[in-house]
Amino acid sequence: MTQPPWGQPPQGFYGQPQQPQPPLQQPPPQAPYGQAPSRFDSRFWMGLVGTLLGCALGLAAMLKVFVLDLPPGPRSLILESMSRASVVAYLPVVLYLFVPFVVDRYDPEPWWALLGVFAWGALFATGVSAVVNTYGGELVAELTGDAKTGELYSLAISAPVFEELFKGLAIFGMVVFLRREFDGVVDGIIYGTFAAIGFAATENMIYYARADLAQVVLHKENALSDIFVLRGVLTPWLHPLFTSMTGIGFGLARESHESWKKFVFPAGGYVVAVLLHSWWNGLPTITAQLAGQSEGAAVQLLNIAVGLLMALVFFIIVCVLVYRKGQTIKKFLYDELLIGTISKEEYDLITAYGGRLKARLSWRGKAGEDFVAAGARLALSKFHTDRAHKGQKRTISMDFIVPLRHELARQRQMMMANYRR
Q1: Cα separation, 275 vs 272, whole angstroms
Q2: Could you tell me if 380 and 329 are in contact, meaning their C-beta atoms sit under 8 angstroms apart?
């Protein structure tokens, strides 16, 4: 459609000039240096294939460790317990995922990307970690001749190092294969949280199955309810907290265009994630082995209190970072208002918290949701371009700016067609 001259404010309702509208089939003008790269390019398909293969590998690893290696007798009991435990483990996931989904409303991530990292955490990270931790602990116990040393290695060293590595690969994959959907620190936290919740859900299923077996075979009362309160109620956010440190590292690297930061920040975030995870797993285990089970239980209670406090502080930090993301969108979209790309009403809609949902539920419909998404993406692309210019670097984000302006025009045309109907 024909826009007012650059530098002049739009006229009429919703930024439309008072003149006949062009046909809906008319394509927007091409950007001077071509269309922005598609999110579904060759890298996307490589990432999708890698995710599917990784999930299949993780599922096979879990089957080997928890089913195929069992004697024929207990196998049926294990399968029954795992089926019951899966219900207890995965039902609360809807509630857990609702929190990060609601928090990030300025530029929410696509559902298929969130589903991909969730599946990676639930299948690949859990399955491969189970193999590495189980056989690594057995190897250390055999080499040292001490089962407690093998247990300590598995919990305090192997689990933190390899679990955070395999969960972090989901975030790394987003940066490499789907960079368009990864804008900064908040995105790193969101993707890290979804991968970690997927991991925790599957891991909880394993713990719940063991507790259910203890109730059935050993007649331990309340074994399942006790472990559910600990892992499902008191500490469900610890895995997301740990992995979010890696996500923050990748997010800081994405927001920076200095080469050394692109390696140091992710590595630093991963190290922090490993240290926090090692603290959580290792301190009660070491205390129990050195001082006794009762002392280990007391330390575990203290750990829970500290973990709850850390989760609360971290949630506050995430809210602050989401607010920062909203302010970034407002700042880098404002000159589009000045030059007439968007109207004041459109600017307020795009920069509103939950703007996509507001547009979708109004008369604007799907076109309005896509309009808000394009506006937020335009602002973030300009943000990354500004950072790149300051560092005298080039970023793929600058290739999106002009095409996204045309996308705004196209979606506005679709919205007005919906309105006239």
Answers
A1: 5
A2: yes
Is the Cβ–Cβ distance between 192 and 246 less than 8 Å? Answer: yes
**In whole angstroms, what is the distance from residue 350 CA to residue 188 CA?**
22
Report which residue type is found at 237.
W
- Which of the four pLDDT bands, split at 50, 70 and 90, describes residue 248? very high
- Helix pair angle (293-339, 365-390), 10° resolution: 100
Half-sphere exposure of 419 (CA within 13 A, CB side): 15
- Cα separation, 410 vs 375, whole angstroms: 12
pLDDT for residue 6: 45
Q: Under 8 Å CB-to-CB from 305, ≥6 apart: which residues?
A: none
Give the pair of three-digit tokens for residue 243: 């992995």
First to last CA, the chain: 18
311 contacts 238 by C-beta, under 8 angstroms: yes
Contact status, residue 66 vs residue 206, Cβ threshold 8 Å: yes
**Cα 161 to Cα 377: distance, rounded to the nearest angstrom:** 35
